[in-house]
Amino acid sequence: MKRLCFLGNSHVAAVRAALNDMRAEGGLEDVEVDVFGSQRNSLRTATVRNGVVGSSSAFVQKNFRWTSGGMSEVEIARYDEIVILAGISVFSSAHYQAGPDLPTISSEMADAIITHHMEQDWAIGLARLIAEVSGSVQVSFVGSPLISVDSPRAQKFLAQYHDRDTGVGVRARNLRTMIDRSVVARSAGNFRMKAPPADALEDSGFFTRSAYCKGSMLFKPEVDAQHPSNDFVHMNAQYGRLLLQDALG
Prior knowledge:
Layout (H helix, E strand, L loop, with lengths): L1 E7 L4 H12 L6 E7 L8 E4 L2 E4 L2 H11 L5 E2 L5 E5 L21 H14 L1 H12 L4 E4 L10 H10 L6 H19 L4 E3 L43 H12 L1
Helix pairs in contact: 1-7, 3-6
């Protein structure tokens, strides 16, 4: 039996929704999946001690019990893989853009940007710490989803991407190749960084297709409602299903 853990902030809501659907379909035989999540930056209080991920925050503990079905901390050795769904993905174009434009970026510059981001992003730091304390558990940092193609920033970027005269399409494809190579090179031991599911992304690989954003659910135990239509950062159960399928191989 494979044991998976998804740990993150409000973006774990997509996985929880997908789990409910897939369990109802009987599609998760011989797989154990637990989800631990807490809103926004509250997960920054998480600590790794004595083989568990926990928090001194009563708010985080309450959210962990709600999302996991009763557990207030993550027992690392219980799982074959822990997937981190918080922090900003290194595949986000925001790291590499100069305003709305995408300049020419060398492989050395791309590496420097990724190195800086890895040093500064608290969620990547948490993922690496979890990996360090247990060499037998695979820890995969996916981060937050890439924003929807319907967002104003994505619309501006993609207008240039599809305009051959700007050269943005060529620069974007070259950049994505450099990021892929850098991420593979930085995967060591039981820690790795992963791109969001390929099927969820549009052609450039920097934004999420609209179908995976529409109908995303609020991450509140007392509210059963969708995000407003101008929320371009949270994803739905279809996206969560892709994350699960990707983790299951």
